[in-house]
Amino acid sequence: MKTRYKNGNFYLNHHFLKGDMIVEDGKILEIGTLAQDEEMDEVDLEGQTVVPGFIDIHTHGAVGVDVNGADAQGFEKICQFFASQGTTSWLGSVLTDTREQTLTAIGEYKAWKKSEHNGAQMLGIHLEGPFLAAEYKGAMPEHLLMKKPNPELLKEYQDAAEGDIRYITVSPEIEGIPDMIPYIKSLGIQVAIGHSGADYDTAMKAIRNGAMGATHTGNAMKLLHQHFPAIWGAVLEDDEVYCEMICDGRHLHPGTVRFIMKMKGLDRVVAITDSIMAAGLPDGYYKLGVNDVVVVDGDAKLVVGNSRAGSTLTTGQALKNVLAYTGRSLQEIIPMFTENPAKLIGVYDRIGSLNPGKDADFLILDAENSVKSTYVKGRKVF
Q1: What percent of the chain has pLDDT over 70?
Q2: Distance between CA 104 and CA 122 in Å, rounded?
Q3: What CA–CA distance (Å, rounded) separates 259 from 341?
Q4: Cis peptide bond upstream of 229, omega within 30
Q5: In the prediction, which pLDDT does 310 show?
Q6: What does the buried/exposed string (b/e) look like for 177-203 if buried means 16 or more CB atoms within 10 Å of the residue's CB?
């Protein structure tokens, strides 16, 4: 059955368009000023704003569930919470862990995939490690980091995931990693560089070999110096690299958010949450992979070492933060949450915009840009 969402203000091709949208079998059929010559179910949007669903490609969990230790039901719990925050698609970020636990997390994702879903959709897995530099480990467990590439292990993970590992973070200074990037991409995995003190030339070699993302830019990363631009200088300079940003006001100063957006352009920044299991819950003690984490005033840090350990951010709050930090319009900011992450991980052919033929993943925002309703494949999930 077709459904007409009428009298909406739809975000399409970087502009807002007043009109109707027709959805059938979870797909967008038409959008615009449409003739009403066919009888179908109707939803009157009364002029409200409609935007594509948000895509979070870097998150470790929420509402008491840690991706590394989640079972299928736990993943579904995250999905339902994320839907309430405007996220319609996400990657489960597996923090560096043992081989056995990483395979367990992948197995539980596969079990989730076969179950019934009533929230956001998991797109697959993001591996944050294990090929990361100890000096910039952040919340990574140092004893589990690998000091050299292991293509056989990565292929084992991808085979176990049945091709659904879509994204990996690596450090370019790990010997052999830049040369391994074409192989990683041949497995169907997009590559981001981060947790790194790589010099400029090494970072640029990784980019030339196919790295397309920068993990939580400016965090767990050697910073820009006028004589040594380092990895941060490389990812800011290159026109093709997408820069992740955690816009919670803690990981990046609002001025830094504006600076990255100005350097990269609005088509090369990706809003992420890097949220942990504490997202949506009060302050207290939590886990991030093998780590113990304490959250005080919403700020997550390791119990031992006091390094920042992810965030408690949601995509809905991140949208409001970016709007407040930048003073830019909603239509300028929306691609950070939709189109850009979809393009980075190779799913823009089916999600990331409201163009006809794509999945009917969309949000209705109120006048304050809060998420009022969320639809996944044409079905209301919040």
Answers
A1: 100
A2: 16
A3: 19
A4: no
A5: 96
A6: bbebbeebbeeebbbbbbbbbbbbebb
Residue position matching structure tokens 């996220």: 87
Q: Look up residue 8 and give its two tokens.
A: 């909406």
Backbone angles phi, psi at 337, to 5 degrees: -105, -5
Residues 6+ apart with CB under 8 A from 34: 4, 19, 20, 22
Q: How far is CA 317 from CA 55, 78, 242, 272, 356, in A?
A: 14, 16, 21, 11, 28
Strand 61-62, strand 65-66: pairing: antiparallel
Rounded to 5°, angle at Cα 51 from 275 and 380: 80
Provide φ and ψ at 89, rounded to 5°.
Answer: -145, 145
Question: 28-52 pLDDT, tens per residue?
Answer: 999 988 778 788 899 999 999 999 9
Q: Two tokens at 309?
A: 């350990």
Q: How far apart are CA 97 and CA 150, in angstroms?
A: 14
**What integer pLDDT is reported at residue 335 of this predicted model?**
98
Start-to-end CA span in the chain (Å): 21
Q: How far apart are CA 78 and CA 66, in angstroms?
A: 9
Mean of all residue pLDDT scores within the chain: 97
- DSSP 3-state of 376: strand
In tens, the pLDDT along 323-357 reads: 999 999 999 999 999 999 999 999 999 999 999 99
Cα 193 from Cα 275, distance rounded (Å): 19
Burial of 380 (0-12, 13-18, 19+ CB in 10 A): exposed
Neighbouring C-beta atoms of residue 317, cutoff 10 Å: 19
User: Under a CB-based contact definition with an 8 Å cutoff, are residues 228 and 201 in contact?
Assistant: no
Helices 230-237, 254-264: axis angle to 10 degrees equals: 50
CB atoms < 10 A from the CB of 361, how many? Answer: 29
Over residues 212-250, the pLDDT tens digits come to 999 999 999 999 999 999 999 999 999 999 999 999 999
Instruction: Report the pLDDT value the prediction gives residue 148, as an integer from 0 to 100.
Output: 94
Q: How many CB atoms lie within 10 A of CB 28?
A: 24
Q: Are 344 and 337 in contact (CB under 8 A)?
A: no
